[in-house]
């Protein structure tokens, strides 16, 4: 079993907002950190697309986030941050909190399955996140392992290739339908977990595609449905 991480396992938005607010209090900054977090996430796919299409050479997600952060600081007119403070803010993505059901559900699934992230996040980011949040991965797989960002097929086939599994013996778990459909095209089984609060409390989860194998409200329910 391989898992999307940002939004599926951890609450990226609340974590980035928290880190921004802490910095804002320290530096007396008047910033809409909710909008800042959303804009930062909005630069995620475009920055990786530049790597996918060869516009820039392989660059890990920490470095892509840092470049996006420099753009955001200018766009939000944030001044007076030292390089150390910028680096600390950039590593907010290493310090994200899991959803309330994530750790319990992963531990239940770990009993009968090999579990791993399959994230565009770099390995150091995923390991730091796991250590802080108590995520009980068996192994940490990342797009960085093969220098291919999802949805490139090579990324989805990483777990089957390394563990000598057939693609259909591997399940991709995500809160994002596009991620699951790309995995399904590579022969993987798919599980959709609803995360309606990804973009803020009271939001709506994506509508799952009828071709997805399992739909669950959270990781604990997914562990039972397996």
Structural description of this entry:
The structure is a single chain. This protein has helices at 12-27, 33-42, 44-52, 61-75, 83-90, 102-110, 123-133, 153-156, 158-163, 177-185, 219-225; strands at 2-3, 116-119, 141-142, 171-174, 189-193, 214-216. With 226 residues, the protein is of the alpha/beta class. The protein folds into two domains: 2-11 and 97-225, Rossmann fold; 12-94, DNA polymerase, domain 1 (Orthogonal Bundle). It contains eleven helices and six strands. Helix 7 (123-133) links the parallel strand 2 (116-119) and strand 3 (141-142). The longest helix has 16 residues, at 12-27. Helix 1 packs across helix 2 (33-42).
Number of strands: 6
% residues in beta strands: 5-15%
How many separate structural domains? 2
Q: How are the strands of the largest sheet arranged? A: 3-2-1-4-5-6
Helical residue percent band: 40-55%
Going by CATH, what is the homologous superfamily of the largest domain? HAD superfamily/HAD-like
CATH architectural designation of the largest domain:
3-Layer(aba) Sandwich
Structural class: alpha/beta
CATH fold call of the largest domain: Rossmann fold
Oligomer state equals single chain
Major β-sheet profile? 6 strands, parallel
**What top-tier CATH class of the largest domain fits best?**
Alpha Beta
- Shape from CA axes? globular
